[in-house]
Write a structure and sequence with these properties.
Length: about 800
């Protein structure tokens, strides 16, 4: 019997597909996933990608479902099996970019552009600045300067080859001597290091292997979305996740076109990373975000604000880091942004500066302001590094939103202070006006406005999420996508306010705790949050274990690395050398304080590996494990509490593969491997909780859907602040324990109670029953969390 499929999900389950986990493997998972109570499978990108890709975001062909996963027939079989179990399908799609594969023939559109140049029928597909490359597309693929790589370049089978790379040849150039042949192409092969400053195509962040796609062109939109829209029209797909819309020329315009093409019934969420005080544009025709704003508010209620402040002081004392190198969040972000815009994103900044200069030349009003090119470039940088969110949304001929105008004005006022000569700071106002579209809409001015938003989003992602997030490390769980590392703690009132706003404005938005992009899974962060209740003990333990490791002959390469490594090991919960070393090495390279991806310091990295192996994965690691056992009750309360809030708060919860149970995972690729059970008891307990909550949502969608209310419940008594509770539709109640160590130190619950709405209430997790003013000591006697429903015999049920 085929079960009915809901259009809007009650919950989703995310699967990461790849050559080792295909549609067939996913199909075998369907009965188990359906038994959890979710309504939809959520699949990572399914279109053709670079061979062997473990993630699928490097699309090579929008017309084809990836053969390595099982092709379109395999996808349709998976959808049919899912439908038979009542599950819909949500697809992750990638409109912003395509792959620049080693064998460029795998990307047919790019191959033709490389072969035919600006006159190619596909030239409009890609965001290429031909003028900057003197009519040639720069390809930074060579391992060294061209002169030293000539012997490795060959012509065979009508193509130019370099190791595993393959490029087309311009017609009529096949028989030329190699130097002349290279000069005659519409592309220029160069040393990969030149990409940072000379690249002349838009890319995804700093990844030169991913080229920006111009979906703002209606023809490009139609061609790149035809397959997905056909799958939607056929009922194979019922929802879409939009990857990185902030990279697009006009995110709102793109989403409007997609909504029109899909119809009103398709559930669409956008991967929009909101700042702490930022709101999703109300005009976007989507159900909401992918849920990082929910993650921020869930995590924050389990962090002790006083403990975090003491932990930060201890971190600064232990590491001795300078303010801009991790000592102060705002200064760390500022320094990281300056480094990123002047280093990894130098080519993007240069293209933006050229557009500003051209706009000034094209507009008499701007030309009359008489800015030196260097002043415009400096003004651009100083403004960009001060933006507090990913990007402004200034598109078409519409005036900027008041929030964007105020944000850019404030950033410009601060940026002007960076100039020694006040008259030269006037260039900041020109850049601001160009970004806000306040100038004549000449082609260079329009290009500047579009590029400004695109570069801004790339800069924010790389400078804040990556560089600064790995430099500022008092509490690693706070350095997560969409979070506020400098102020990671929030009171229950802030959580309730967020839920009320979501319920009012975006009731079907996505919510998450773990994704393929989180630096640490929800459970790893829940464990780390426990450290905010033990700041002094943690600081002393790190000092002692670091010294012990040094005495064993493996000193940490620097104190910041030591602090990061010990917390990472604590979050992982198991001394796995391979996983831990990879995560700590990635953290060090992203922080770019002593070693980087492009300039690795071999001696430093060997010292890092020795320290991780001898310390967290060696004998001192046993002391860390003993400390974790002491904190097990707090970790348990945090893990279960965060999970229950996530699964019952307003919105549509997404469960990442494996996170239905206890799932401590680190940054990719660690979070893309099969889940490993570390704590079997906690795993079983969380699985029971997840199943109970998801089945409740599935069986009673009206209790949790768009019309259901979110009603905060206030505990009464001396320990009231340690209980966070709310009712959904007056039919289900969530209650969780927060800051349990502080609670125990204060004498536990004592006579604190939770006044319940009228009726008899049944705890789905423990089987207990309660009514009236529920004593929290009794409610939480077996578990630190409770999920209550009205007993069936109650007349109000």
């Amino acid at each position: 019997m085929t079960l009915p499929v809901r259009r809007a999900p009650t919950s989703t389950y995310r699967l990461q597909l790849g050559p080792e986990f295909t549609f067939g493997a996913a199909e075998a998972f369907v009965p188990r996933i359906a038994a959890l109570g979710v309504s939809h499978l959520h699949l990572s990108p399914v279109l053709d990608a670079v061979p062997g890709s473990a993630h699928g975001y490097d699309v090579t062909d929008h017309a084809t479902v990836r053969a390595e996963l099982g092709g379109e027939a395999g996808l349709r079989r998976l959808a049919a099996t899912a439908r038979a179990h009542g599950l819909g399908l949500v697809l992750d799609i990638v409109p912003n970019h395509m792959a620049v594969p080693a064998d460029t023939s795998r990307n047919r559109q790019l191959w033709e552009v490389l072969r035919d140049g600006p006159g190619s029928r596909y030239a409009s597909w890609f965001d290429i600045d031909w003028a900057a490359g003197e009519g040639r597309l720069l390809l930074p693929v060579l391992g060294g300067p061209l002169a030293g790589e000539l012997d490795r370049l060959t012509v065979a089978d009508g193509a130019l080859r370099y190791w595993d790379h393959r490029f087309p040849l311009r017609a009529g150039t096949e028989g030329l001597p190699l130097p002349e042949l290279l000069a005659a192409q519409h592309y220029r092969l160069c040393w990969w290091r030149l990409g940072r400053t000379e690249l002349n195509y838009r890319r995804f962040f700093t990844v030169s292997e991913l080229i920006g796609v111009r979906v703002e062109d209606p023809g490009v939109f139609d061609a790149t979305h035809a397959t997905v829209l056909r799958l939607v029209a056929d009922g194979v797909v019922t929802g879409l996740r939009i990857d990185h819309p902030d990279g697009l020329a006009d995110p709102g315009g793109y989403l409007a076109r997609l909504r029109e093409a899909c119809g009103a019934d398709v559930w669409i969420v956008a991967e929009k990373i909101l700042g702490p005080d930022e709101r999703l544009p109300a005009s976007w025709p989507v159900a909401g975000t992918t849920g990082y704003d929910a993650l921020r508010h869930v995590d924050a209620v389990f962090v002790d604000p006083e403990g975090h402040a003491r932990l930060t002081d201890a971190y600064r004392e232990f590491t001795g880091v300078a303010p801009e190198a991790g000592g102060v969040w705002a200064e760390t972000v500022h320094a990281a942004a300056h480094r990123m815009i002047g280093h990894e994103l130098a080519a993007e900044a240069a293209r933006l500066a050229r557009a500003a200069e051209a706009a000034c030349r094209a507009d008499p009003a701007l030309w009359g302001r008489d800015h030196a090119p260097w002043a415009l470039r400096a003004a651009l940088v100083e403004l960009l590094v001060r933006l507090p969110v990913y990007r402004p949304y200034v598109t078409g001929g519409a005036p900027p939103a008041p929030g964007d105008a105020a944000m850019l004005t404030a950033a410009a006022e601060a940026a002007a202070g960076a100039f020694a000569v006040p008259e030269e700071s006037a260039a900041v106002a020109t850049v601001r006006d160009l970004a806000l579209g306040r100038c004549d809409p000449t082609p260079p001015a329009v290009e500047f406005r579009v590029r400004f938003g695109q570069v801004s989003s790339a800069l924010r992602a790389k400078a804040v999420e990556d560089t600064a997030g790995y430099r500022f490390a008092p509490l690693l769980s706070a350095a997560e996508v969409g979070c506020a590392p400098e102020a990671p703690a929030l009171p229950p009132a802030a959580f309730h306010a967020h839920c009320a706003r979501v319920r009012r404005e975006w009731p079907l938005t996505g919510t998450v705790l773990s994704t393929h992009d989180t630096k640490r899974s929800g459970d790893a962060r829940a464990a780390l949050a426990a450290l905010s209740e033990h700041p002094s003990v943690w600081a002393g333990l790190v000092s002692r274990l670091t010294a012990e490791t040094a005495r064993a002959g493996a000193p940490a390469p620097d104190p910041h690395l030591a602090w990061t490594a010990w917390q990472t090991a604590f979050a992982l919960g198991t001394p796995d050398r391979e996983r831990l070393t990879a995560a700590v090495l990635k953290a060090a390279r992203e922080a770019a304080l002593a070693t980087t991806w492009t300039e690795p310091d071999a001696d430093y990295e060997r010292a890092l590996e020795r320290f991780v192996h001898a310390g967290p994965c060696g004998p001192p690691g046993r002391s860390l494990a003993e400390f974790a056992r002491r904190l097990a009750p707090t970790i348990r309360a945090n893990v279960l509490g965060a999970a229950l809030l996530h699964l019952t708060m307003p919105g549509v919860p997404d469960v990442y593969r494996g996170s239905e149970g206890h799932y401590p995972a680190l940054v990719d690729p660690d979070n893309r491997r099969p889940p490993v059970v570390v704590d079997a008891e906690l795993n079983a307990e969380k699985l029971r909780l997840t199943t109970a909550a998801l089945r409740l949502r599935h069986d009673h969608p009206d209790w949790f859907g768009p019309e259901a209310g979110h009603h905060p419940l206030a505990a009464e008594g001396p320990a009231a602040e340690h209980c966070l509770a709310f009712a959904r539709a007056t039919q289900a109640i969530t209650a969780v324990t927060r800051l349990p160590h502080r609670l125990a130190e204060a004498g536990s619950w004592r006579d604190t109670h939770l006044p319940l709405p009228p009726g008899d209430w049944h705890d789905l997790l423990t089987g207990g029953r309660t009514t009236g003013k529920a004593p929290l000591a009794r409610l939480f006697a077996q578990s630190p969390v409770a999920l209550l429903v009205r007993a069936p015999q109650d007349p109000g049920a």
